[in-house]
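Progress note, sequence design subtask.
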C-alpha cells in the first residue's frame, strides 16, 4: 500500500506543529458576521514537513488559510471563543493522484491569567482531493494544546489523537513540546522583531507498516528563528527525525534539512 510517509508539513514553526499550523495567527483580523473576526493568510515554504517528514518530496509548498473566530465570552477568570477554518497545501505523493491537502479545522480557545495561560481544544479533518477512496488517506484528529507565556520565554505542549490515521493505519498519538524565546534586545524599529524557537515531538502509529514507518513510533525535532518585518514572518528552521534513509522507504524525506518560509496574515 502507498504510504504518506513515502512522500511525506513544514513542521514549520509557522504552523504545522499541526498544524498548529492551522489558522492560529491573531496578528490581523477583519470584522466577521455575528460579531466575530475573520483572518486569512498564506505561507510559501521550501518544503511541507509534516511532523518532520516531507509531504512534497522536499519541494516547495504554498499554504493559504482562512479562519473565523467568535466573539469571546469573558469572566473574571477567563475568556473563551470558538473558531472554524480551513487550511491547504500542495502535496506530492507519487504514484497516487494526490495533489493537495485541504484541512477543515474547528475548536474552542480559552485564555486565563491575563492571557498568559492558553488552551486550545481542536478538531482537524484532513482531506486529499483526487485520491482513490480505497487508499483511505483522509482522517480525523482531535487535540489539546496548552501554553504559558512567562515573558522571557513561552512554552507549550500538545497531545493529538486519531482513531484511524492516514492510510487506515489505526490509532495514532502525537505529543509535542515547544519553546519560544523572544529577542527584544535585537532592536531595529517597532516594525521589526526576532525570536528563536525549538520543538520536539513523538508520533506513534498502531499499524505503522500502513503508514510506512519502520517502527511503531519515531521522534522529530526542529530549531529555528523568525524575523517579523512589517508584518511578514521570515522563518528558517532545521528539521530532522530519528528515521534513517532505509527506514524512510529509501527516500530522503525524513533526513535533516533547512526549511525557509515566508508567511503573511492579511
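Output:
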Amino acid at each position: 500500500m502507498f504510504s504518506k510517509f513515502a512522500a511525506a508539513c513544514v513542521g514549520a514553526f509557522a504552523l504545522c506543529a499541526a498544524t498548529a499550523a492551522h489558522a492560529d495567527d491573531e496578528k490581523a483580523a477583519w470584522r466577521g458576521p455575528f460579531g466575530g473576526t475573520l483572518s486569512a493568510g498564506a505561507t510559501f515554504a521550501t518544503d511541507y514537513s509534516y511532523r518532520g517528514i516531507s509531504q512534497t518530496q522536499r519541494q516547495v509548498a504554498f499554504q493559504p488559510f482562512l479562519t473565523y473566530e467568535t466573539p469571546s465570552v469573558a469572566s473574571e477568570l477567563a475568556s473563551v471563543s470558538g473558531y472554524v477554518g480551513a487550511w491547504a497545501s500542495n502535496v506530492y505523493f507519487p504514484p497516487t493522484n494526490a495533489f493537495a491537502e485541504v484541512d477543515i479545522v474547528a475548536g474552542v480557545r480559552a485564555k486565563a491569567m491575563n492571557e498568559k495561560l492558553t488552551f486550545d481544544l481542536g478538531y482537524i479533518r484532513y482531506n486529499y482531493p483526487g485520491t482513490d477512496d480505497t487508499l483511505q488517506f483522509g482522517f480525523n484528529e482531535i487535540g489539546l494544546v496548552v501554553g504559558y507565556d512567562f515573558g522571557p520565554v513561552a512554552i507549550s505542549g500538545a497531545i493529538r489523537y486519531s482513531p484511524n490515521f492516514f492510510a487506515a493505519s489505526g490509532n495514532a498519538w502525537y505529543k509535542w513540546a515547544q519553546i519560544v524565546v523572544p529577542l527584544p534586545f535585537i532592536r531595529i524599529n517597532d516594525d521589526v522583531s526576532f525570536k528563536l524557537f525549538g520543538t520536539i515531538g513523538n508520533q506513534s502509529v498502531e499499524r505503522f507498516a500502513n503508514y510506512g514507518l519502520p517502527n511503531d513510533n519515531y521522534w522529530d525535532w526542529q530549531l529555528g528563528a523568525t524575523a517579523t518585518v512589517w508584518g511578514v514572518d521570515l522563518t528558517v528552521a532545521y528539521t530532522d527525525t530519528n528515521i534513517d534513509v532505509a527506514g524512510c522507504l529509501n527516500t530522503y524525506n525524513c533526513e535533516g534539512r533547512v526549511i525557509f518560509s515566508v508567511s503573511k496574515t492579511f
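Confidence is low (pLDDT under 50) at residues 1-26. Work on this subtask will continue into the next period as scheduled.
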